[in-house]
Amino acid sequence: MNKVDWAVYRDISINGLWKSNPGLVQLLGLCPLMAVTTNFVNGLGLGIATTVALVASNLAISIVRHLVREEIRIPAFVMIIAANVTLIEMLMKAYFHELYGILGIFIPLIVTNCIVIGRSEAYASKNPPLQAGFDSLMMGIGFTLVLVVLGGMRELVGNGTLFDQAHLMFGEAARGLTLSLGADYKGMLLAALPPGAFIGLGFLVALKNYVDKRKAQTVKTPQAQPIVRITPAGESA
């Protein structure tokens, strides 16, 4: 049995969640990112669906990577992704029908999401299943985090609520999870409109770049060197 190289999985985690985050660095999947993130729950629903499709597809692609001829590689990958997305769409229709109605066309459009296709070609087709599955999981979680943070920001600023419509995912018991800034809060319409999504994402990208810059400056800052006194020969320093 091969020894697990935990350093590889650590690097995959950092890469997916931060260094190469699909939403903040690669800027992939911007169409659903902008359209769906009107609130926290919508972002979470699409993020989970995308992550499940990403993991299932990349696992399958990694398993069959040596069996697929080079000439039909991309069409075969798309067929695998489409089959998984169709299954996810059917499950959402059955168990989360109202949420599926809100997310609408963006569920089947996961088939064409650049994140899913990009990771299948760049990583899953070249690596063993365990690493491919873990890479897709971290990329999916990274994308989901951007969706829920952006959705939460827009919902809070635009409507003055947070976790509204949580019952669409977690059942009627979750209706009490909704937080509100109060009846007097009028909301900001710009946050709920498409320009608000661009502005919010811009703030998140700027924040990440700022954190990276500060971290790089901290690493490059030289430590104080000890002072060396030079004395004439024969005298003690």
Automatic annotation (TrEMBL):
Broad class of the protein's primary localization: membrane
Biological process terms in GO annotation: electron transport chain
UniProt entry tagged with the keyword Repressor: no
Record key words, sorted: Cell inner membrane, Cell membrane, Electron transport, Membrane, Translocase, Transmembrane, Transmembrane helix, Transport
Domain of life: Bacteria
GO CC, any one term: endomembrane system
Segments traversing the membrane: 43-64, 76-96, 102-120, 132-153, 187-207
Membrane topology listed for this record: Multi-pass membrane protein
EC annotation from Swiss-Prot or TrEMBL: 7.-.-.-
InterPro entries noted in UniProt: NqrDE/RnfAE (IPR003667), RnfE (IPR010968)
Entry's localization field: Cell inner membrane; Endomembrane system
HAMAP family in the cross-refs: RsxE_RnfE
Function: Part of a membrane-bound complex that couples electron transfer with translocation of ions across the membrane.
Protein family: Belongs to the NqrDE/RnfAE family.
Subunit comment: The complex is composed of six subunits: RnfA, RnfB, RnfC, RnfD, RnfE and RnfG.
Protein name: Ion-translocating oxidoreductase complex subunit E
Species the sequence originates in: Thiothrix fructosivorans
Gene from which the chain derives: rnfE
